Amino acid sequence: MSKQAEGSVLKDGEAMDMLTDRAERWAAKYKNLSDSERWRSDYDEHFDAPALQLAKRCTLEARPFGVKDWILALVLWFLIGGTVFLASNFLMQLEPTWQIVFAVFAVLIAVVGIMQSYLETTSERRAAKRLAGKKDWLLSVSRKAAMATLSSRAGATA
To answer: Structure pTM?
Structure first.
């Protein structure tokens, strides 16, 4: 399912605010204040699906590495590698043998960076890991707000 079908793309903070507001409203109406052990399980049961939907709306999916991605990755990582080489050469006044060593190191930085960019963009496994991490983060942040509301309500009724 595409992001357009599920709704507009959200920033992390917007998703967090939406889920936290829902969680606080849920906590304000929650009936079973006497059983604090049940709060978390009821919360997780109620907010697991909404957290997943919001996480999908604010997490990038795996996609093909296009021409624009290649250009950006090559420019960025060769710029970083070149800066490392030039800065080390300028600051350390390297001898020719060490210049070759540092040039190889700079190229290695660029190659590893380009590979990392490629894998981060195209890997389904990494995309799933990002999605799961975002869902867990959304749940934990909004859970804290809901549990604080429930605790204050339980303390007020006690």
So the answer is: 0.74
